[in-house]
Amino acid sequence: MFLLSVTHIFLSLSAFVCAAPAGTTSASAADSSPTVPLASDNPNYPLWNDTVDYPPQPIRGPFGANQLGPQNIAIDKQNPDLLAPPTTDAGTVLNAKWPLALSHNQLHTGGWARQQNTQELPIATQMAGVDMRLEPGAIRELHWHSADEWAYILKGSTQVTAVDQDGRNFLETLNQGDLWYFPAGVPHSLQATDDNPEGCEFILVFDSGDFSDFGTFLLTDWLAHVPKEVIAKNFGSDIAAWNGIPGEQLYIFPSNPPPDNATSPSDPQGSVPESFGYRFSQVPATQLAGGTVKVADSRTFKAAKKIAVAEVTVEPGAMRQWHPTEDEWAFFLEGNARMTMFAAEGNAATFDFQASHYVENTGNTTLHYLEIFHTDIYQDVSLSQWLALVPPALVKAHLNISDELIATFNKTKATVVAPDPYLKAF
Ligand SMILES: *[C@@H]1O[C@H](CO)[C@@H](O)[C@H](O)[C@H]1NC(C)=O
Ligand SMILES: *[C@@H]1O[C@H](CO)[C@@H](O)[C@H](O)[C@H]1NC(C)=O
Ligand SMILES: *[C@@H]1O[C@H](CO)[C@@H](O)[C@H](O)[C@H]1NC(C)=O
Ligand SMILES: *[C@@H]1O[C@H](CO)[C@@H](O)[C@H](O)[C@H]1NC(C)=O
Ligand SMILES: *[C@@H]1O[C@H](CO)[C@@H](O)[C@H](O)[C@H]1NC(C)=O
């Protein structure tokens, strides 16, 4: 699980893009000016992974020296590109990785929740995330907040309810791989069904980096802090009718699983015009040379006005194309990945990511992750498409590469590219 901001290059499993052999220069091409030294031709593969049975050392080629002090070998094995960074890393880039295993968990009867916001990861100012688990029937209580909420179900199914500002209601049961979206201020609830005997777990993303899910407006917290006569007056009832309400917030609490045929009460205002649920699990993925991709944004999931997602799989050795874009919050579902984040002005840093079942994924299994963006429309730029669609002489003048190589650049966007036959398998 990780977060990242700013322009970056995403690399999985394999190392750097494009190691085609040097070609010849044609007379018609512009000459490049040797105003700066040439880039190093050393590859910078990650030097080890979690499967190695030796303590890794902070040594890359002629640089570094072994560690004499205490060493946390497990963490070093998961982060080869921090302990022995590629020589292409430079300057300072804020940390872009946060294992949710380091988040302080909040345990309740019926489930738990742990979050990442700018307290954990100061670079991630645009979005915050929560990992939440509910046992069958358990409820994340009726609440609302000032940020938009987007969700992806990791396991099980969840019954969600909401009522919008115009009094129109909504109830839907969503399954693994499906999404929901609640605009800011819309009161909602989440409840695990017993479709999965263990209940459900989901990832929430909010459209503000400093959002805290532990600081939302909860029905119980609110009523526990309003004088009883005011509550009674509001509902035109007797005070004693409110004797049994909780004296403090519930947040998550156990309950009976909702029936399969649950429906919203009849609503004189009607139901919400754009569903807050989206059956993303039923959207077919687009097959690409090195993996698959499918996208949900406001064009297809109309309620999702501020958050878009790409669900991506990358086969061993393949790579997610370079994509400079807006801030991205990514969550790893399976497999291992490597990513270089380029923050302009010569600053770059490389990070290694693992899904939670890290030990089972040693880098030879398919990578599966979510790219989440704070935007209404998903868009990215492909490096090869960019370079294929400007005059070749212009590219040559920048990069001093052969015409033959430039001619191979693909004019169509390839979101995930197949393993490079010129690179060693990794
Ligand atoms: C272009 O690259 C070649 C190596 O491939 C190098 O010998 C040459 O000096 C470079 N030319 C310029 C103008 O940088
Ligand atoms: C793990 O790292 C070792 C040492 O660099 C390497 O030999 C092995 O191929 C790597 N395994 C995978 C699955 O990448
Ligand atoms: C749902 O199913 C239960 C049990 O089969 C039944 O008693 C109830 O009337 C149904 N409710 C609705 C709204 O259809
Ligand atoms: C993946 O790696 C594991 C551990 O190194 C190994 O046992 C397994 O055979 C590998 N699978 C494939 C398909 O290469
Ligand atoms: C270019 O990319 C498209 C889309 O991924 C792919 O279908 C096509 O085969 C590629 N063309 C070449 C010449 O690699």
How does this structure look, described?
There is one protein chain. This protein is mainly β. It has a domain at 104-278: Sandwich (Jelly Rolls), CATH 2.60.120.10. Helix content is 10%, strand content 28%. The protein has helices spanning 73-78, 80-83, 219-224, 228-235, 383-388, 392-399, 403-407, and strands spanning 2-4, 9-11, 59-60, 63-64, 106-108, 111-116, 128-134, 139-144, 149-155, 158-163, 169-174, 179-182, 188-192, 200-206, 217-218, 252-253, 277-278, 286-288, 291-296, 308-314, 319-320, 328-334, 336-342, 348-354, 367-373, 416-417. It has a 7-stranded antiparallel β-sheet with strand order 5-6-7-14-9-12-17, with no helix packed on it. The chain is elongated, with a radius of gyration of 25 Å. Mean pLDDT is 85; it is low at 1-29 and 356-362. Mn(2+) 2 binds at residues 323, 328, 357. Residues 253-275 are annotated as: Disordered.
Short description:
The protein is mostly beta strands and 426 residues long. The chain has helices at 73-78, 80-83, 219-224, 228-235, 383-388, 392-399, 403-407, and strands at 2-4, 9-11, 59-60, 63-64, 106-108, 111-116, 128-134, 139-144, 149-155, 158-163, 169-174, 179-182, 188-192, 200-206, 217-218, 252-253, 277-278, 286-288, 291-296, 308-314, 319-320, 328-334, 336-342, 348-354, 367-373, 416-417. It starts with a strand and ends in a 9-residue tail after the last strand.
